[in-house]
Amino acid sequence: MGTTMKRHLSTTLWLAYVVSLALTATSALAQEFSCPKNCSCAREDRDEFEVTCPSDGERIALKLQPRSKAIFLCQVSTVSEDFTLLKDVSVDAGPAMEFRLCPLPDVAFTDLLRLRNAAKIQTFTYSSHRKFNETLERKLFKGLTGVTSLSLANNGLTTLPFDLLMDMPLLQQISFLNNMVQLPADFFQPALSLRTIELGKNELTVIPTDLFRNLKKLDLLNLWKNKLSNLSPEMFKDLTSLTSLDLRHNGLSSLPADIFKHLTSLKNLRLDGNDFQTLPADLFNSNKGLETVHLSDSRKPNFKLPSGFFANLPNLTTLDLNNAGLRDLPNDIFWGSNKITSISMRNNQLKEISNEVFQNATDLEKINLSFNHINSLQEYVFQQCKKLRTLDISHNKMTNLSRNALSGLDALEELHLENNLLSYIDKDTFSSNCKLKVLNMANNRLSFDYLIADSRPFFEDNSPLYKCAGLEKIDLSNNSISYIYNDWKNFFTNLSLINMSHNALESISFYSDAFSPHRDREIDVSHNKISVFDIDERSESWAIENAQLANSDKRQTWLLHGNPFSCNCSSYHFFRYLEKKLSPEVQRLVNIVPGNLACAGPDGWQSTPVTKVLSKAITCPLAPSVASICPRPCACNFRVADTALIIDCIGKNLTEAPAALPRSSTSNHTELYLTHNKLQALPDFTQPGYEMVSKLALGYNNITGMHNVTNLPKILQVIELHQNNLTVVEAETMEAFSNLTNLTSLTLHDNPWKCDCHLQPLISFVQVNFRKITNPDKMKCLNGQLLSALTVSGLCSQTSSVVWASLVVALLLGALVGASFAVYYKYTREIKAWLFAHNMCLWFVTEEELDKDKLYDAFVSYSHKDEDFILNELVPNLEGGPIPFKLCLHYRDWVAGEWIPNQITRSVEESRRTIVVLSPNFLESVWGRMEFRAAHCQALNEGRARVIVVLLGDIGLTEDLDPELRAYLNMNTYVKWGDPWFWKKLRYALPHPPKAMKSSIDLVNRSTRHTNGKSNDDKLELICEPNALPPVTTPPAEGNITDPLCIKNAFNGALSSPRKVIIPNHETNGTAAAVG
How far apart are CA 698 and CA 673, in angstroms? Predict the structure, then answer.
């Protein structure tokens, strides 16, 4: 117990000590940093601060890790005076100081802060992305005596002072990347410990010969992307330790043969991107230590390498000749350089490779000859390349691979032959020692059909790859392969991916085309010509057998999208697989990925995604013996899912059902589809074949009744009678439906059901078999009421109420009609007059009908002073003209001694028209005005035009006329004596038979179009001008007064004496009878 307590006490004391040290360190750190005035400070991490100045707007920031690094972050708007905001920051110097986007300060970099131990700074970086030109001075670097790495990249420097590095004696790395600097000859002399110099992207044209003098420790020199033209051996004479030299992209067109003679330690040389057309053959004689050479991207075409250029370089391992414009290779170019492991000659213009080029390249592991013009490989060209692992000859023009083209490549693991013109590969091209793991032969013309002609049966099922059992990935896409070869399925146990997309495969039989289940595999057969993927019962047996293996969890995935798939009988099991209805072993070992695979056929299925096709919808053609008796024009098929015979007669314009149906030994029931036809009755179920019908689809026809239902098929399960013309069903029909013990679905909606007592059997059936009725909520009566809401008792009571209501309505209508006839008989004339006046039922009421009892065609009202005009002109022309009219004249038709007002009234009422001869004499006649008012009163009562005004002479202005006469003349038309068309217009205004009226209208119309030789509007001639007025009439006689009020008004008006006015003679005259 005591030992345990001591151990706990010791542990507690140790933890307390650690915590105390941490708190002390944190306290010390906090004490050595204080936030300056006018700045904001934030602690980013336990030992990292960020200072932003000024606090109200960031112009300069400082990220500070005491004793580690200080990073100055500036803005584009930052100026050198902003550095003073940080002058009170006190901190111990760390190994790194960096300036980003900052201007040059006015004081030394070490004076920007209260910096302690500035000599500890080892790495100094200043990258402003500004243009300093010549402003960089030595005094800015005061105190940086411990710097070993100096980076002044991206500053726009042009000229540097010769003594810039005088205070940095320990400098080992320096970078002037991306400036435009020109260096003095002795610039690097204060820093003889330099190991790395970066002068890339400076547009240097001349380098002083002594610039690199005494730099015996220099290891790396980058002079890339300049414009050097004065390279000489003396420039590099002291660089005896240099291992890497970068001269790429300098526009060099040639090099002195001894340019590198002093660089005896050179290992890595970059000469790519220059303008060489050739180089000295002995360029590398002094550089036997060379390991990597880059000569790619020549900017001159037809670059030619001299004989033995890379020969006898015992340490050379990597050679980059990509895009060098090479047309050929000397046979001895690599001789003696036995350690080369990688040669890349991509994107040149090589047409062939001599079988001597690689004869000493025994250590080669990778060759890239892609994107050339090679049309064939010479036999044994790679015979000595025993260690070659990767060979890329893609994107060339090779048409075949001979038997020994790949001879010697026993270690080859990756071979790229894609994008050639290969159509033939010898069956023995690949040796028995084939170690290939990755093979890409995409985008060629391979089919391997020529193997079928081989006399040895072995090669009919195997491809030229049969010896490469270690293959893991094969790409054969975009070829013409039409067969999955046996060696691919059964020999390549390590195969994980084979891409056969865009080939000529037409079908897949999984039982024969399945790959061995040794590992997970992906088989891409997309975009072929596959119409069938057969995964039948034999496939299930295969899956059950292989599921028992130890590695039964391995799956093979088939990619099928982009094929012209047939959704027919052959693919039945494929759809069952998609529905997961095959055995669990198949579902576990096989992963079919349809992607966007859609049906290409048969008709009606095109473009349907296979994932939406149900296996139970797949049908197969019938045996010829059964298909031959399929009723025309119907189509007959066999449905595999439930062994059903499907007879499709949809939309065939049939008026009656087929007389007989075929039978098939492979089916146990029939489905008959007769929708969208013109049937009016049910089929005759006594005919052959109907006893096997389990589904009868009769929707969308014109069936009006359901008879002949006593012989319904006993196995009938589904009856569809929706969208027909059924109104009622008999009790025996419903009884027959009730006896169908297998019935599961009956559709009767969208029929015009007549909801009365006769519908009781249907209502009862629906209530009892409600669950068997499809869409019962759509079964409605003609009045829109739901059948499901009706009851048998309510249906009949509702019907009785409707009958009684109909009888009562009929009796009321009869009484109303009888009363109407009685009223009409008594008031026939008044009714007809009222109807005619209101333009109602004019086919029933005509003018001739209203005026048939009148004695005269017209009563002539005139002044006796105008009797000459009446007797000599008006009467002879109207009574003796082509259409004689019967006139009422007071001097011959009035009864002597009768009271004049009564005579006037009777004459007006017994005449169809009243002709008022309006003259100055008429205006002075009291009786004339009475006659006018009587005629006008009658016209108003009847709502018809009965007054004809004949204007005789000048009656003056209308303002002084009697108000009633003035209003009449302002609103109506008249006939003027003297008008050339006077008699035609007057006869037109008088009553006459219809034929005569038509000819008169035509005559008047013609006359109005030609009056005075002008084409005037006929209506303009009918308008009486507003200031004109007509005349007064005949003396009255005696008679009975039939309308005292009207006559009294007429008489009283006539007694008022008129004032004489003058009316001008107008050229436009009235033509027809005025409407009163």
Answer: 7
- DSSP symbol at 888: E
Helix (H) or strand (E) holding 815: helix 792-826
What is the DSSP code (8-state) at residue 102? Answer: P
Residues 616, 619, 620, CA angle at the centre, nearest 5°?
140
Asked if 298 and 321 count as a contact pair (C-beta separation under 8 A), the reply is no
Which parts of 959-1062 are beta strand (E)? 975-976
Check whether 655 has a pLDDT greater than 90: yes
Q: Which residues contact 402 (CB under 8 A, 6 or more apart)?
A: 376, 377, 379, 426, 429
Residues in contact with 328: Cβ distance below 8 Å, sequence separation at least 6, in sequence order = 304, 350, 351
Q: What is the dihedral of CA 1024, 1029, 1035, 1039, to 10 degrees?
A: 60
- With cut-offs at 50, 70 and 90, classify the pLDDT of residue 892: confident
Other Cβ atoms closer than 10 A to 820 = 10
- What is the distance between the alpha carbons of residues 400 and 378, in angstroms, rounded to a whole number? 11
CA distance 357 to 384: 10
Q: Which two tokens stand for residue 1012?
A: 């005075």
Q: Which of 96-100, 948-952, 981-985 has the lowest mean pLDDT?
A: 981-985
Query: Could you tell me how far CA 133 lies from the centroid of its own chain?
Result: 57
Contact 1076, 945 (CB under 8 A): yes
Check the CA dihedral 15-21-26-31 and report its sign: positive
Higher pLDDT, 1002 or 537: 537
Going from the C-alpha of 800 to that of each of 265, 728, 760, 784, 806, the distances in angstroms are 123, 18, 14, 19, 10
Please state, in angstroms and rounded to a whole number, the distance separating the CA atoms of residues 499 and 475. Answer: 5
Map residue 1075 onto helix, strand or coil. coil
Which of 243-257, 531-545, 619-633, 782-796 shows the lowest mean pLDDT across its residues? 782-796
Which helix (DSSP H) or strand (DSSP E) does residue 150 occupy?
strand 149-151
pLDDT band at 943 (very low <50, low <70, confident <90, very high): low
Tens-digit pLDDT profile for residues 290-335: 999 999 998 888 889 999 999 999 999 999 999 999 999 999 999 9
HEC states along 395-414?
CCCCCEECCCCCCCCCCCCE
How many Å apart are CA 920 and CA 1033, to the nearest integer? Answer: 10
Stated as kind and residue range, the H or E segment containing 902 is helix 900-909
The domains found in the chain, sorted by start residue, are 457-614 (3.80.10.10), 619-794 (3.80.10.10), 850-989 (3.40.50.10140)
CA dihedral 778, 779, 784, 789 (to 10 degrees): -100
153 alpha carbon, distance to own chain's centre: 51
In this prediction the pTM is: 0.65
Q: Which helix (H) or strand (E) holds 999?
A: helix 994-1010
Backbone angles phi, psi at 353, to 5 degrees: -120, 120
Give the helix/strand (H/E) hosting 792.
helix 792-826
Type and span of the H or E element at 915? strand 911-918
Q: Decide: 440 and 415 in contact? Cβ < 8 Å.
A: yes
570, 535 Cβ separation under 8 angstroms: no
Contact in structure between 300 and 271 (CB atoms under 8 Å): no
What Cα–Cα distance (Å) separates residue 515 from each residue in 486, 585, 590? 9, 15, 10
Sheet containing 693-697: which strands, arranged edge to edge? 619-621, 635-639, 644-648, 669-673, 693-697, 718-720, 745-747, 773-774
At 721, is the pLDDT very low, low, confident or very high (cuts 50, 70, 90)? very high
H, E, C per residue of 11-68: HHHHHHHHHHHHHHHHHHHHHHCCCCCCCEEEEEECCEEEEEECCCCCCEEEEEECCC
- Give the tens place of pLDDT for each residue, 1038-1065: 333 333 334 334 434 443 333 333 333 3
